[in-house]
Every structure is written in structure tokens, then in C-alpha cells.
Amino acid sequence: MDELCSKSAYDDADLQLKVETFLKDRSIDAVTGIRRMGRENLVDFVAEMANDLGIGCSVYPDTSGKDAVIFYSWETMKDPAESLLRERPGLDVLHGQDLCHQVPAVVRYNKKKRD
Length: 115
Known about the structure:
- By secondary structure, the protein is α/β, with parallel strands linked by helices.
- It has one domain (about 1-110).
- The protein is about 35% helix and about 20% strand.
- The chain contains four helices and five strands, in the order ααβαββαββ.
- It has a five-stranded mixed beta sheet with strand order 1-5-4-3-2.
- The longest helix is centred in the first third of the chain and has 14 residues, at about 10-25.
- It is globular.
């Protein structure tokens, strides 16, 4: 019930548009989710939407994403992310982040353009 209380009728459409814009424009640093959505839920949503848009994406520890790999948390990503970027310099590396007021975000770790 709490989840319903935190959403407006426009949240889903707004979130889809924000995530699509974020995924298509690598100059954008981050995208925020809906309050109380949860970081892991937003990471999963971004990964699913990326794949729906034809951007090959996986969620770590799966690193098979052709275009992007998303980590659930920045705490677990630094060493694996650096290794991935050495091996695959054009890879889009993203991570989940908890912001204030129970708002999750997905943040871009690197801003190199996709080839």
C-alpha cells in the first residue's frame, strides 16, 4: 500500500521518458526513480528498458551486456568497473545510488560515447 501512496498517475510515463532519455544520451550523469521505488528496482527497470531499446545491458555480476553493465551499488563496483573498462573501453558502466528522501538513482560511472 505504501508504494501506491508514493506514486502519482504520471509517475510511470514520466519515469519511462526520463530513463529512455538517460540511456540514449550518455552526456546525462544520472536518472532518478520514484520515491520509495527502491534502488534495486530502479536498476532492474533501467536494465530492462535498455534491452527493450536495443541497448545490450546486463546487471552485475553478469557482465555479458554488449553496451552496458549496471551495478546495484557503487560500493561493489569500483574494481570490477575499472577492469571492465580496460577490457571494453566503450562500455557504459552505471550504478545504483540511494539519494535522500528515499529516492533511488542510477548514475553513469563513465561518460565515453558509445561507438
